[in-house]
Known about the structure:
By secondary structure, this protein is an alpha/beta fold. The protein has helices at 19-28, 51-61, and strands at residues 4-6, 38-42, 67-71, 76-81.
Amino acid sequence: xxxxxxxxxxxxxxxxxxxxxxxxxxxxxxxxxxxxxxxxxxxxxxxxxxxxxxxxxxxxxxxxxxxxxxxxxxxxxxxxxxxxxxxxxxx
Length: 91
């Protein structure tokens, strides 16, 4: 099952994690590219990322992505699935 992968280290400023740099970068990012996509937020990177950063990424994706998973391509967990609208037929 293919996922669009997003790595939290993408939002680091100058190869190191800072709160100000991270928040600026996620506010400028084009989240619409994940519309109705299955997204994998990569949990294993070479840099220490605080837990709140993952929550901020998830908050940006909710309402846009079809589903959000944490982990890697081989081992991940679903943290959010968009609700499917119930289709009712009108007679």
